[in-house]
Hints:
This protein is an all-alpha fold. The chain has helices at 3-26, 33-55, 63-88, 97-107, 118-130, 134-145, 150-157, 162-176, 179-190. Helix 2 (33-55) packs across helix 3 (63-88).
Amino acid sequence: MDRHTQHTIYEEFLNRYERLIISRIYKFKTGDDVADLFQDVTIHIYQKIPVEFHKNPDAFSSSAWVVQVVDRFLISMYRKEKAKKNIHSKTISQLSDFQWNTIANQKISEDSDLHFTETEFDAILKVIFEHISRKDALMLKMKYYYNKNSDFISEKLNVSHVNMRLKRLKEQLQNRVPQTVYAEVKERFFKED
Length: 193
């Protein structure tokens, strides 16, 4: 199918079903997301035209087909967003007690003067970085390992309120890990500002 034919079918399709598509989107999302989802859905449909039109040209004149395609697309987008949130919603506070106790019991009693070897300390940082989002881990590394300023981090990672995010990450860490471990991380990694 040539581009001109595909574009013509797409325009006719949008003229006929734009309201239906928008109403289906409103069943899933509201607000600013509707315009973005409308664009995503219509791009998806535009890409389906060459394949679907050859299979069943009458499908494009059926509102049932439109509802089915739009709903499936929106459900798929919802599942992807949910999976992405689940991956990135891990926080330091969700580390199991077993993980921290294993680390802590190897070296610590609350009364002792704790100093981890470099290898042990690297293992602690690795556990921390594995249980936060990649972006948060990069932020911590850029700030405290590479000594980059907040403006640089904000620009490179496309995040706002870097200092506030770092503060919250440190609070999560302080509230979750044994205090002696946190003291070591604070002293050796955070090098408090």
